[in-house]
Amino acid sequence: MGENEASFPNTSLQGKKMAYQKVNADQRAPGHSQYLDNDDLQATALDLEWDMEKELEEPGFDQFQLDSAENQNLENPETADLNLDSIQPATSPKGRFQRLQEESDYVTRYTRSAPKSNPCNFCRLLKILCTATVLFILGILIGYYAHKNCPSNATTSGTLDLHLYQEILKTIQAEDIKKSFRNLVQLYKSEDDTEISKKIKSHWTSLGLEDVQFVNYSVLLNLPGPSASSVSLSSSGQCFHPNGQPCSEARKHSSQDLLYSYAAYSAKGTLEAEVIDVSYGNADDLKRIQKMKNTTNKIALLKLGKLPLLYKLSLLEKAGFGGVLLYIDPCDLPKTANLSYDTFMVSLNPGGDPSTPGYPSVDGSFRQNRSNLTSLLVQPISASLVAKLISSPNSRTKNSICSPLELPNNDQRIVSMQIQTVSKFKTVTNVVGYLKGLTSPDRYIVVGSRHHTAYSYYGQEWASSTAIITAFIRALMLRVKRGWRPDRTIVFCSWGGTAFGNIGSYEWGEDFRKVLQRNVVAYISLHSPIRGNSSLYSVASPSLQQLVVEKNNFNCSRRAKCQETNVSSVQIEGDADYFINHLGIPTVQFAYEDITALEGPSFLSEALFLKRATKIEEMDPFFHLHETITKLSGEVILQIANEPVLPFNALDIAIEVQNSLKGDQPYTHQLLALASRLRENAELFQSDEMRPANDPKERIPIRVRMLNDILQDMEKSFLVEQVPPGFYRNILYHLDGKTSQFSILLEAWEHCKLLASNETIQEALSEVLNSINSAQVYFKAGLDVFDSVLVGKN
Organism's domain of life (predicted)? Predict the structure, then answer.
């Protein structure tokens, strides 16, 4: 458009110059004009004069009277000797065009009467009229049948895309996922993850995925010590391992499970002190306990759940505790779960390589000495060991009513805990493969699964994750081999080091941060897809919730049994963490859960139980749940990768913000006013820009690209700098499905209970206010940009 506009003034100027030359034809002297010196321009002037003479001779111009010399030339065009002198307007000092305008009697003096009868002219007019009529009718017929045979772009595009997606997804079969799963679980027994990584890379390459590569990082891992940790009762001298078995009997059972019942990056050593039951360790619990007892250097008996573990440990550390015995109350688990003697692992690492916080672990990076990330000695223990410590035989009564485990207030228990861990630098491997986009190769949809990492617990959820991503790659590449490609690039990642704090994904994210911030439009998580078998639970960014609901309802309509869609924006475990909290990228995750688990306390998934492959197959014996997760995730991936306009909903973000400020919350009047302005701008953006762009008839490529750039960066406004440990920096995500308020505001109000000060709440309110203001300014700036483009075009 710019080039065309730039050429118009030059063309007009040139036309004015040529007209000026003809008007003053008799005044120009040879050699005084570059135009006359040029033979081509002289010929051009001659042609223009000749054309004008013929036009003046047409009936519509009143039959201008020509000189005898000119009449001769016109009557004998084949024999006439054309020259400049014979056609120059020499009879007047003014050119013919100027005279027509300035001399009113010129036409009268130089006209002749039209003949009364002219059969030749009549025949000519009749021929022209007939020809025009035939061409007009033919054009109508061609246009009608062309429109009839070619449906609208919107209908064709939508129908073809939906058909294409179904063609790709129908090749995904549960039996293939099952075979892949069983092949993968045979590899975990290797001493390191090299064999598994090589297997994944080889398999993805054989399927046709492009540029599959290893991305390795040398990171600091905190590993189990040579012997299992232990807890001893000082009163009786009895020694127990974390699963509740006496130390003397441990040799008779598998010691591997005992070794991996530990807290990675905990402080190590020995501590003997009184045990204080702090329940879930929230602000109310600690306030109540500190009124009754001195907590300095004591051992806290802490239940997992309800709040992030790192946050609760930070409160205990501030309260002066020296150690923590961590467990899961059986009353918080489904009745079918019998985990009384099961041990588990937790990681105290907020994310990435602890030795390079905030920057990638590449060669030459400075390494910090951070073998432990807390001053607390933290030891996960089983519920059976807790029962022994508090002298409670069972947590359930005969009437099947669960009685929570708790230590009586008047009882005193002194125990000795010993923790042995070893910190070593090890290589963590990511497997990354690409399917390059056709029209927007610089825009990425990242799909993340995980694989087993050496030296970590050997649960089998990773095999489900890897089998699902591989099944989708297989289906996708079958279509690619037939010549199709998505519009945007799809990046497939199998992360290493997840159990230690999402180390592989964090390091890769920090390594390519600038590129990812600019180019990634969405992250699809396949972290732990099968955690139960009774309810499909979806987690999505506010901007993607509408898409998730649509896909779930569509897939539900194809099944006999349909469940109510359960989708929310809550904190989740896994490698999506970096993309949500540091890059502000819209994220989706589908997973099957137990309904009772959803109804129970949140954050129980922070415990990594040693699930065997048989347990996964018990939950999904025919792998139909695996197939459903693969197809749901695949359809979302395809739509985001292929739709001209990203299927994100700006208005849903504004509505989520308003909902997060509902309820009896103090100091939120200013926030509500700002949230109202955010919604107004989001509504304008949605109606004025997004709706027209979704209509192919109004779709302009440059405007679509501008619109997509705005859509993919919407959530970045809600990243805050300072949050409590374990809380998301992206404040659009709530702590769990039971709370709808901003998590940092909830924590600030809880913090006020401990310190009796409103300084923390004021800081949190300021963070939220700045985020909302940034978002509404962002939408308004987007509208202004589009307005500027329209003004420029006009």
Answer: Eukaryota
3-state secondary structure of 668: coil
Backbone angles phi, psi at 236, to 5 degrees: -110, -15
Residue % of the chain over a pLDDT of 90: 51
The more confident residue out of 768 and 148 is 768
- Amino acid letter, residue 127: K
Backbone angles phi, psi at 568, to 5 degrees: -155, 170
Burial class (CB within 10 angstroms; exposed 0-12, middle 13-18, buried 19+) of 236: exposed
| Residue given tokens 């709440």 in the structure block | 761
Give the 3-state secondary structure of 712-743.
Answer: HCHHHHHECCCCCCCCCCECCCECCCCCCCCH
- Please state, in angstroms and rounded to a whole number, the distance separating the CA atoms of residues 230 and 250: 11
In the structure encoding, which two tokens stand for residue 129, read together? 């009229």
- As a whole number of angstroms, the longest Cα–Cα distance in the chain is 138
pLDDT tops 60 at residue 6: no
Q: Tell me which residue has tokens 């040693």.
A: 610
Q: Give the tens place of pLDDT for each residue, 138-195.
A: 766 665 554 444 444 433 445 567 889 999 999 999 999 999 999 988 876 655 667 8
Distance CA 48, CA 40 (A): 12
The amino acid present at 756, given as its one-letter code, is A
- DSSP code of 29? P
Q: What's residue 562's pLDDT?
A: 60
What pairs with residue 524 in β-bridges? 447, 588
- The rounded distance, in Å, linking the Cα atoms of 443 and 276 is 53
End-to-end Cα separation, the chain, in angstroms = 12
Question: CA–CA distance from 167 to each of 475, 476, 638, 690 (Å)?
Answer: 9, 10, 12, 28
Please provide the DSSP assignment of 737-786 as one string: TT--S-HHHHHHHHHHHHH--SHHHHHHHHHHHHHHHHHHHHHHHHHHHH
Angle value at C-alpha 73, between 69 and 79, nearest 5 degrees: 130
How many Å apart are CA 446 and CA 448, to the nearest integer?
6
Q: Which long-range contacts (CB under 8 A, 24 or more apart) does 597-600 make?
A: 597/333, 597/334, 597/531, 597/532, 598/535, 598/537, 598/566, 598/737, 600/305, 600/332, 600/333, 600/334
Angle at 118 between CA 114 and CA 123, to 5 degrees: 130
Sign of the four-CA dihedral 359, 365, 369, 372: positive
DSSP assignment, residue 686?
A: I
Q: Where do the DSSP E strands lie in 474-534?
A: 488-495, 520-525
Residue 224: half-sphere exposure toward Cβ, Cα within 13 Å: 22
Instruction: Put the strands of the sheet holding 230-233 in their side by side order.
Output: 239-240, 230-233, 413-419, 269-279, 299-303, 323-327, 377-380
SS3 state at 282 = coil
- Distance between CA atoms of residues 707 and 692, nearest Å: 11
Backbone φ/ψ region at 567: left (φ over 0), alpha (ψ -120 to 50), beta:
beta
Long-range CB pairs of 665-674, under 8 A, 24+ apart, other chains included: 665/741, 665/745, 666/761, 667/761, 667/762, 667/765, 668/765, 670/769, 671/765, 671/768, 671/769, 671/772, 674/769, 674/772, 674/773, 674/776
Closest CA to 182 of 750, 637, 612: 612
Q: What is the mean pLDDT of residues 772-788?
A: 87
Query: 743-755 and 759-793 are packed helices; what angle lies between their axes, rounded to 10 degrees?
Result: 160
**Which H/E stretch holds residue 215?**
strand 210-224
Residue type (1 letter), 264: A
Residue 71, pLDDT above cutoff 70: no
Residue 81's pLDDT band (cuts 50, 70, 90): very low
Residue 631 in contact with residue 555, Cβ under 8 Å? yes
